[in-house]
Amino acid sequence: MLRTIREFWNDQRGIAMILVAIMLPVLIGFALLAVDMSRATGLHSDLQKGVDALALAGAAELDGRADSITRANNAINNLIANRTLFSTAGSHQIARADVTVTYLTGIPTSDSTALGANGVDANSINWASTDPTAVSLVVVTLNAAGAGNFETFFPVSMSSRSTMDIRPQAVAGFKQSICETVPLFMCNPFETTTPGTSKTIQQAFASGDTYGREFRVLKAGNNPGPGNFGLLDNNLTSLRDAIAMGTAGTCYSRDALTTKTGVTLGQVNTGLNTRFAIYSNSLNKQDKNFAYRPSVNVRKGQKSNACNKYSPVTDGSALPLPDGARYGVDAPGMSDKITAQSFWSAYWLANHKSAYSAPVPAKTNPTGNTGAPASRYDVYRYEIDHGLVADQSQNPTKEVGTPQCYKGTQAPTDSPDRRLLNMAIIDCIANTDKINGHSQIRPDGYASVFVNTPIAKQDNTKDDEDSSAGEKPISLEIVDVDGAFANNTLVDKAFRNEAQLYR
User: Fold this and answer.
1) Buried b (16+ CB within 10 A) or exposed e, 261-290
2) How many C-beta neighbours within 10 Å does residue 311 have?
3) How far apart are CA 40 and CA 48, in angstroms?
4) 89: buried, middle or exposed (CB in 10 Å: 19+, 13-18, 0-12)?
5) Dihedral over Cα of 147, 148, 151, 157: its sign
6) Among 26, 108, 284, 329, whose Cα sits 20 to 30 Å from the Cα of 310?
7) What is the Cα gyration radius of the chain?
8) Cα–Cα distance between 465 and 455 in angstroms, integer?
């Protein structure tokens, strides 16, 4: 008996089956877990792509206009309606109820700071907003009971299978840049030291406060403010050439600009004056270069054969677009608006030899009142559109508006208009330290400005780039702005809109 027991005890045949029987549940469990993890990874990848696409679709509409959130919601809903198949439950697709969409004014600086679906981060900072003009980002989060909920093969308990929640999140933002612009900024003429009385350039434009006003700007000093302009950093070696050709040589972010110093104002004058077929000494060899071409209408109250500097005639036989009244009285850097049709009487009689009896329509008036006195830009365009550019002014000047000093074989074209510039508008009072410190600044907006007249010198016997000649201001008129209140001519032609993922 003892021998039999001893032989049975020492017999190892069949032990592998015992070990397999013991380990088989473990091996099956690990296999199921591996399958579940593979399924979860694949589903997470698909769902992440889905919420990424939804976030990008929404962000592409966040351009600061009054209907931006409405358009963003429509874009997201339309994309969801494509019925992309995900998960294993219901109709196998992401439904609108499966995602939470929240619009944000910003996000935490560190990606390690968690952001909730409601826009509140781990530091309890609420980034969410319902203001369509303020939001620039959207966070899309898959809900816990949404398409990311699926049953696993691996059971948590022996009595039932378990479920797993996958909750991907995506944050996308609207990025806007402007490429067709000169490297200049103008201080917001409607900014005041009292925030409650300040207006954005878009608000001023929409209310008609910019229409028909002459804005005169001088280069900003240590205390920039309304009535000043400044320079932006650009990639071109020559600021003069950048202004003359009309491109900064780089695209500027709508949200961040860096200022530039150390450049004389003469380079700005020289570059701008090429648009009137005035080529100073440093550019006298560019009068045949199409890149330095003038406008098709260069009427400026000067003899047509004066090609290297601006010397207005003084006998009234030819007149530039007239200056505004009460310049700088109510606010720095601007005149009163044109209020009467008689404002144009002397100009019309000198340059077109007839009475101003049929008023020019105020076509670009943002209020829609075309019967108001025309702006300088409207009159300039009327001369082009009605074949009046070649009209000869009174004796003895006999000026015409067609450019006489440009010698290029390729004639100037009307599109783009060479006397229109896209220019950044900055709240200079609020950003004085950043302007002087060359920090990045968020502009108040962008404006399409019309150059009324060439830039002259205090001492007109000297060349444009002679810094000892003394500067006179640049005379401008605002034709359009970006944003919700604009006529959209600037945005359509100059801005590049992009949506990008941030998280």
Assistant:
1) eeebbbbbbbbbbbbbbbbbebbeebbebe
2) 17
3) 12
4) middle
5) negative
6) 329
7) 34
8) 11
Q: Cβ(273)–Cβ(243) under 8 Å?
A: no
Question: Distance between CA 400 and CA 304 in Å, rounded?
Answer: 7
Distance of CA 189 to the CA centre of its chain: 19
State residue 49's pLDDT score.
80
Cα 154 from Cα 421, distance rounded (Å): 66
The answer, yes or no, to whether residue 428 has pLDDT greater than 60, is yes
Which is it for strands 420-426 and 184-187: parallel, antiparallel or unpaired? parallel
**Residue tagged 């074989």 (tokens):** 409
Instruction: Report the pLDDT value the prediction gives residue 439, as an integer from 0 to 100.
Output: 74
Give the DSSP letter string of 335-381: -PPP--GGGGHHHHHHHHSS---SPPP-TT-TT--TTSPPPHHHHHH
The residue among 195, 173, 194, 264 whose CA lies nearest residue 501 is 173
Cα(357)–Cα(383) distance, rounded to whole angstroms?
15
Write down the pLDDT at residue 382: 96
Tokens of 257: 């600009």
Beta strands of 179-303 (E only): which ranges? 184-187, 215-219, 228-232, 252-253, 259-260
* Cα 238 to Cα 310: distance, rounded to the nearest angstrom: 22
Model pLDDT for residues 338-392, shown as the tens digit of each residue: 999 999 999 999 999 999 999 999 999 998 898 899 999 999 999 999 999 999 9
Kind plus residue range of the DSSP H or E element containing 171: strand 169-178
Q: What is the pTM of this model?
A: 0.71
pLDDT at 377: 95
Burial class (CB in 10 A: 0-12, 13-18, 19+), 497: middle
Peptide bond connecting 416 to the previous residue in cis, omega within 30 degrees of 0: yes
CB 54 within 8 A of CB 140: yes
> In sequence order, what are the residues at sequence separation of 6 or more whose Cβ sits closer than 8 angstroms to the Cβ of residue 58?
72, 73, 75, 76, 101, 103, 138, 140, 172
Helical H segments across 375-488, by residue range: 376-385, 432-437
C-alpha distance across the termini of the chain, in Å: 76
| Per-residue model confidence (pLDDT) at position 260 | 74
Cα 342 to Cα 357, 363, 478, distances in angstroms: 10, 18, 21
| Distance set, CA 345 to CA 353, 376, 400 (Å) | 10, 13, 18
Q: For the chain, which residues make up each domain, given as ranges? A: 23-177, 179-496
